User: Which sequence fits this backbone?
């Protein structure tokens, strides 16, 4: 994996946790940041560049995504970088010997596959695609032992890129086992957070780990609209934004947080989620049964997520802060039934067992059998 955005790391942790839960001492898992620990510059510093790139140069990301979005083009680009990537790939494979490598980042799949073949290793390679709908061909390396995706649309893209049908499975996006276990009723969650348990609907505003998606402007617009609601804002690692929001003169009850470890409690307490269309946040919101307003999306990779949510009636697309504030005021009024209806549709999209399903697929590959049905716990 790599720490370019929080999703790759959280998915990897969820898979490792599921494997350990089901297999115990029969499996040993290691999390490796392939870019930071092995890749040459500038890829080794992509964790630092990524938030700035997405936040300030998003137009270049959009065009870069579109220009490389084709199986032939993606393979040609990977081949061009292969001489640079090969020494790092060789070192990774020698220092991290494994029966199975699970790759949860698009830039590692082709190099790992080519490196395994070049070194004539018996290592198997499983790709877990963390973009559930819009899948870039960098994710899709024909020849991997499994490619695990989040939707039927993603599966069709994988087949179009040359992956064998029997090796592409729909599992959904893995979420930590602790997330579903941490969900409670709204009243209990609000008491745990130290909030008053009243009739005000709770609006949860999240901008991902880096506080992206115009979070501050949206919070200010809602504050000016003064809906009959309680506002919870998660600024993530953006400490300057958190401090600015703490200093706002709020016209409604508001709670501002930095990076949090208690997202299940916050989502349990909420009636509405406002967020960018990041896949991990959406997957958690589905499990929590939250209706959504999607405020932004990374061009290319998250645009399909917006379509997925809107077409299934689990939320709406509203990139303008004023529009969001208007919807919040309308939906949190006592007469509105919109949130209740959308919450039911959101729950339909939930895949709380995705991590277990991915762990099962990894175990089957580790068994060196295409149809290993002994099950994870029996493999123990």
Assistant:
């Amino acid at each position: 994996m790599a720490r370019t955005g929080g999703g790759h790391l959280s998915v990897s942790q969820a898979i490792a946790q599921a494997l350990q839960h089901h297999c115990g001492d029969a499996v040993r898992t290691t999390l490796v940041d392939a870019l930071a620990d092995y890749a040459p510059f500038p890829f080794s510093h992509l964790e630092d560049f990524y938030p700035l790139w997405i936040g300030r140069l998003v137009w270049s990301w959009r065009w870069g995504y579109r220009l490389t979005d084709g199986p032939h083009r993606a393979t040609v680009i990977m081949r061009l970088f292969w001489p640079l990537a090969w020494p790092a790939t060789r070192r990774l494979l020698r220092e991290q010997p494994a029966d199975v490598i699970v790759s949860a980042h698009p830039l590692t799949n082709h190099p790992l596959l080519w490196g395994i073949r070049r070194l004539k290793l018996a290592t198997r390679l499983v790709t877990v695609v963390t973009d559930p709908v819009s899948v870039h061909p960098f994710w899709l390396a024909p020849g991997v032992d499994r490619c695990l995706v989040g939707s039927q649309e993603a599966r069709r893209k994988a087949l179009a890129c040359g992956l064998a049908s029997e090796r592409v499975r729909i599992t959904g996006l893995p979420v930590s086992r602790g997330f579903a276990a941490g969900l409670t009723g709204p009243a209990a969650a609000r008491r745990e957070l130290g909030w008053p348990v009243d009739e005000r609907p709770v609006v949860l505003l999240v901008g991902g780990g880096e506080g992206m998606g115009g979070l501050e402007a949206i919070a200010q617009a809602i504050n000016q609209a003064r809906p009959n609601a309680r506002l919870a804002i998660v600024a993530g690692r953006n400490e300057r934004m958190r401090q600015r929001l703490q200093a706002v003169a709020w016209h409604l009850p508001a709670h501002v947080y930095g990076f949090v470890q208690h997202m299940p409690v916050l989502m349990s307490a909420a009636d509405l989620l406002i967020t960018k269309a990041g896949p991990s946040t959406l997957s958690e919101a589905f499990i929590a049964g939250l209706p959504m307003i999607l405020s932004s999306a990374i061009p290319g990779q998250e645009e399909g997520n917006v379509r997925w949510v809107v077409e299934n009636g689990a939320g709406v697309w509203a990139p303008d802060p004023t529009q969001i504030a208007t919807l919040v005021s309308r939906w949190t009024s006592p007469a509105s039934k919109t949130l209740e209806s959308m919450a039911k549709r959101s729950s339909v999209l939930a895949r709380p067992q995705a991590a277990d399903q991915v762990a099962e697929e990894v175990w089957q590959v580790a068994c060196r059998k295409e149809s290993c049905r002994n099950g994870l716990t029996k493999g123990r």
Notes: The mean pLDDT is 92. The first strand starts at residue 100 and ends at 103. The CA atoms of residues 216 and 336 lie 26 Å apart.
